[in-house]
Every structure is written in structure tokens, then in C-alpha cells.
Amino acid sequence: MDTQAEPPRKRRCGKERVRVTRACDACKRKKLRCSGTLPCFLCQRTSKPCDYTAEYNRGKLPPIPPREQPNTPPRTETTTEFPLESSASPVRENGFANEAPSRGSPEAHQTDMEGHYVGPSSGVSFLIRAQKRLQEQISLPINAPIFSFGDAPLSKLDPAFLLLPPRFEADILIARYFDFAFPTHRFLHQAQVEGWVSEFYGPLQDSAVAGPGKRAIRALVLMVLAHAKQCLPESDQGIGASVNGTLYLAAAEHHLAAETGPVRLTSVQARLAQCFYLLSQSRINHCWSLFGTTARLAIAIGLHRARRRDRGSGFDYVEGECRKRVFWCAYSLDNYLSAALGRPRIFHDDDIDQELPSVANDSHILADQILPATTSAQSIMLAPVYHAKLSVIIGGVLHDVYGPRRASGQVEAAAAAKYGASLSRWRQELSGFLDVANVDLLMLTYQRQYTVLNLAFYHAQVLLYRPFILKDFGHSTVTRPQNDKSLESVRKYTGLCLEAAMKIAAIVRELCDRGRMYSTFWFTHYYTFSAIVVLYVHVVQGSTQVDRPDRLDWYLRIAEQAQRDLAFCGSRSSFAQRYVLVLEELRQEARTAINHTRSGVLGSQTVFSSALGPPPSQHGHGSSAPHGAAKASVGEALFGLQPLQTGARPADNQWMDLTSVHLHPQPSHANPVNDGLGGTGIMNVSDWEALDSLAVAGLGELDYLFPLDGFQDV
Fold it and tell me: Of 74, 135, 367, 535, which sits with the fewest C-beta atoms within 10 Å of its C-beta?
């Protein structure tokens, strides 16, 4: 066949025409032709900033290719949509940075070490992008110690050059510590600490030689001063100017390393104070390693057991109460570290019979007796005791819901009913305080206790109910009877989880409005992250339900505002900024789902095709969908969940155990066979612990996806 002659070109220039799908803001505003690069030709020629911040509503957000600039160093870009440092990264009017999202670039086909598909359309895809962002944005030197790998950097200082604040400033710092720093984790006795400070500032000749137990006391005083310094308001930053928390931590380590003799209560107290300080510095791996030693020292001296001896004339009530306080604070921290890192707890409830601390103020606890209360005012120790009670409930949730062998649907629902009732009773007993009308009328310590307990309660609800978020499929895949009890339970617990997440977002918003959100509030940052994840996941999961787009949009706006609040809570490499990096990937998924819902693109397997690539079945990995399966919902496409046969009614345990699909599924005791809807065999967002671990520990449990070649050996 003869080849037809090529028609003559109409364009004078022989250069091929390049189609540009997106113009920069300046060219778009002036209606000029744009090269679509970063920077574009015109902005480069005029030496003006080239930004791509205008909203893009034409489908998948295209990547912005860098402009080739010979003899010019390559431009370094920040991939996060939130500023890591507000002074270095400009923020748009809506609070998001002027970058194209990382998901705009197609992801290469990947498999894990077991051959599972982990490409763009898999359930783990956004986690992969989040982890890549963490590797790009967070410096993780490969030569960091294994006990702190993945933590925020900590300056190396010589503890020999230690400067103490003047005595009157030290007294102010001690008072600030007990009024503000630890409102519900009060493991110290104020009068006792004040006495130790007096000894610390005593004559040089009296303190030059450390006697038995003195090194632990000195370490403890240093850590109290370090904690108090970082909790000072802006107006009092001049107080304790010589206090360097990193240096004080190093000096405390120096003293504790030189301890001799038997383990003492102060040895545990000092190390527990170090653990809390490390969390405030975004060093959770360091904290976790140190806490292992601290918890075992506590067990070694029997802090987990109640003292049965007769409280005669030689009994020290101050030490007795501090033993209880230290243990329950350590128990609470053990639970939160386990939840955040997805790792087993150290303390086991079956081994514990320690009593709760007495509800008595420090001023009433003397060495030889505990004085009765002289007024009807609420004791400062009421909130710490109830936080310990809440920790016991959380411990049960972690054991029954987040154990290594995932519970079946019925067991999960039973646990939700059991612990939900316990949480309701807990709050009812404390309702007079937690539901007070005007918090500002309370003294500072009570205000802090009010905030911390409310946040801890709502977070406990999030932990308990969030496994049901992915079970609320609504009308997307299967038709269920309206009076189905399992469906009613799913909807009920999903609603409670969403309500708790919204409460956390509201509290954080108020803290930010009033300037009371400190960068050292690790617990608050963790609570906020968990709440935002729940809201984003629900938006994606519910985006196929056309009967409530307005409500989903409301959830998305609240989550985005909470993410903005979190973005300004910490410095580079802090927990807050790591949370934001992970959340940004999930936010983009939620925003995409909402946009598709508004466009009327529903109920089709192509809903996410433009954003996540072809479905897993086209790649030959991780696909277990049966032949003739129903069309995938948005939640199924994102989280790797497979639909049932068209028109099929799942068994009760199938409907209730959707979250049993995780990295390496283990058979549950209730049903040794897979009792969930068919999954891909790789992680999805139902494995909440892996998501938490990814954000706080740097690599989390996804390190099998990436080699260590990407880390800097510095």
C-alpha cells in the first residue's frame, strides 16, 4: 500500500506544538499563553514569582514539570501543602500552600517483598506517598542510634556547662510546673519537690558530693525546670532564660547514669519525667526505649502492687501516695505509646492490683498522715484519679480491639457496647466538672484539667469506635434491610466516633483562638491527628451516598480547619508537622471524593481511575474480587476493599468484620477462616495503628516498602 504524502505544515516553525493543560496564575489572569512549566517562560523572563495556586476543576490535577535551566542550579521544591515553617513557606488564603499535590505525578508500579500490588490504585497508595513525603521533608540520618532513629534531632551539648536560673526564678518555674505542665499526670508531691530545690540551691560544700539517691533527685529537679520553661506564656519568656531543656536533659542523664545502689522511687520519677520531656521534643522512639527501662524499674520495686503492710508509725504517706501516682501515670503513658506506635503494652492488667491515688491535695498529705479536706472545693487530685480510671478503659480497648488477632465482628461490636457503657459511666460521674458552663471562671489548673480530660475522653471514643467507620457502606455496595441490627450498630458507633472527632476539632480550634495551644502538647497533637483522620476517611467512604453530600462537605471543612490549626503547632520535624504531611495526602483523597460527588460521578469503578490509576485487577497483584462483582465504591477503590457478589447478602460476621483486612491477616478466635469481606491482603486504612505509627515514628510499619537507600548518611 502506498504511503500517503505528509500534508504540508501550516505552522511556520517546524517545532512540534506542545499542549499545555494548566497555566500559571499570572498567565491565566492576563490570558497569556503559558509554557506550563515551573517557572514558566514569561515569569522566568520577567523575574517574577511563578505560582500555580488557582483552583483546578478539569479532572486530575496535572503535574507541573520543571523548566530546564542550563547553567542554573535546580530549584528545590517543598511537596507539602502546609508550611513546615511559616516564615519560609507562604500560605494561600485558604491555609494551603501553593504546590501541586504529590499525587499529581503518576506513581510507578510497585510491589512489596511478598509480591502484593502497592501501586497507585492500591489501598496503601496514599500511605506510600505520605511516607515518601516524610523521607523527603524530614531529615532521618542513617547513623542515628537505633533507639532514637526517626526522631526529631536533639542538639548535643556538654552537661558540664550547666547554668541554673536564679533561685527566685526557679521558684516561679516550680510553681508553673504544678499549675500548668501536668494537670492530670501529677506523679510528684509539690512540697517535697520544693524541699529538693532548696537542697539543690544549698551551699556548694553541702551539695558537692552526691549522697545515696541524691543523683536521681538532682536529675528530677532539672527535668521539672526544663518542663516548666517550655510551658511559660509568651509574656514570661524572660524567666529562666538560662534554662536549656536539651542541656538539662543531658545533665539528668549524666546523673542517672552514675546512680549506684538499689532502685529508688526517685529513680523512676526522674526517668518518667524524661519520657514526658522527650515526647514534647518529638522524640517518641527515644521515649519508648527509655520508657521500657522506666517501666521495668517500676515493676522491680513493686509499684504495680498494692502495699499490704500495716500503716503504722513508720509508714511514709508522701512516699506511699507518690508510688501510686507514679505507677498510674506510667500506666497511662504505656497505653498512649502503645496506641500511637501500634506496639504491645508493657503493663498487663492481670498483674496489677495497685490502688488509685487518694483524692487529696499535696498540702494535706504529710509524712505521717493525710489530713481531711477542710472545704468542699474540688481536689486537684480528682482529675488525675479519673484520668487513671479512663486509662484502664483504654487499656481494655487496646487489648480487645487492637490485639494481634483481630476480633470478629460480633466480638468487636460487643467490645464497643461494653467499653462504650464504661465511658458513659465515667463521664456521668464527672459531668459536674466536664460540662461546666464557664470554664474561664475556674483557676488555671482546673482549666487545664477540664481541657485534658475532655480531649482524652473523646479520643478514647475515637479509639473505640473508629473501626466501624469503614463498615458504614451506606447504599454503595449492598442492600440491607432497614431494621438490620448490625447495620444499626454500625451507624450508631460511626455517629459516636464522628461526634467525638468533631468535639476534638472544636476544642483545638478554641485553644488556637485563645493562644493556648503549645508546641509541646504532644497528647493534644496526637488526639487532633486521630480525629482528623477519622473525618477524612469518613468523607471518602461516604462520598458515594448522594443523600448527604452537604454533611460530608461540612466534615471535610472542619477537618481541613483542624489540619490548619495543627500545621502551626510545631517546628520542622515535630510531631505536628509529621502529622500534617500524612494528613495532606489523605485530605487530597477526601477532596477528590467530594469533587466527584458534586460532579455526579457516582457508583462507578472509574470514580478514582483518574487519580489512582487502573484497578488492582489490571495489574495482576492483590486482586481477589469475584467474577461478576458489583461496581466498586469510592471507599473500596481507595482502601482496597472488595465488593460482594451482586445482590448477595453477607453473613453477619462478614458485614461486621470489614476491618479485619490488614497487612498479614491472622485468623480470629471466633472464626479461623477469613471472616471479613474479601481484601487485597495488604494494608488499608482500617489498620489504624500503622497510620499512627507512620506519622509519629518516621517509618512506622511500612518500612518493608522502602529500602534505606533514601536516607542520608550524615
Answer: 74
Other Cβ atoms less than 10 A from the Cβ of 588: the count is 20
Considering the entire predicted model, what is its pTM?
0.73
Scan for cell 497555566, then name that residue. 23
Q: What sign does the CA torsion over 596, 597, 599, 604 have?
A: positive
The answer for 12, left when phi > 0, alpha when psi is -120 to 50, beta otherwise, is alpha
The letter for the amino acid at 405 is: R
Give CA–CA dist 88/95, Å, rounded.
Answer: 14
Q: Under 8 Å CB-to-CB from 571, ≥6 apart: which residues? A: 84, 85, 519, 577
Which position has the grid cell 457508583?
A: 603
pLDDT tens track for 670-703: 333 233 322 222 234 346 766 777 666 655 444 4
pLDDT of 517 > 50? The answer is yes
- Whether the Cβ atoms of residue 582 and residue 589 lie closer than 8 Å to each other: no
Region 417-446 average pLDDT: 93
Tell me how long the chain is: 714
Grid cell of 225 as nine digits: 525546670
For residue 662, pLDDT over 50 is answered with no
- Alpha carbon separation from 259 to 268, 272, 339 (Å, rounded): 12, 16, 32
Least confident interval from 19-33, 87-101, 377-391:
87-101
Beta bridge partners of 641: 679
- Region for 713 from its dihedrals, namely left if φ exceeds 0, alpha if ψ lies in -120 to 50, beta otherwise: beta
Q: Say whether pLDDT at 175 is over 70.
A: yes
d(CA 582, CA 178): 34
CA distance 686 to 692: 11
92-106 pLDDT, tens per residue?
A: 434 454 443 444 443
* 628, 572 contact by CB (below 8 A): no
The secondary structure element, H or E, covering residue 480 is: none
Asked whether the bond before 39 is cis by omega within 30 degrees of 0, the reply is: yes
Per-residue model confidence (pLDDT) at position 264: 95
Nearest to 254 by CA among 138, 397, 157, 145: 157
CA dihedral (45, 50, 54, 60) in degrees, to 10, reads 100
Please identify which residue in the block is written with the cell numbers 518516621: 698
Q: Could you tell me which residues are beta bridge partners of residue 511?
A: none
> What residue type is 319 in one-letter code?
E
Q: Write out 356-397 in H/E/C secondary structure.
A: CCCCCCHHHECCCCECCCCCCCCCCCHHHHHHHHHHHHHHHH
Q: What is the distance between the alpha carbons of residues 92 and 99, in angstroms, rounded to a whole number?
A: 10
Contacts of 371 (CB under 8 A, 6+ apart): 360, 364, 365
How many CB atoms lie under 10 A from the CB of residue 56?
Answer: 14
C-alpha–C-alpha distance, residues 174 and 456, integer Å: 25
Measured N-to-C along each axis, helices 549-567 and 575-599 cross at an angle, to the nearest 10 degrees, of 160
Q: What is the CA radius of gyration of the chain?
A: 28
The pLDDT of residue 204 is 55
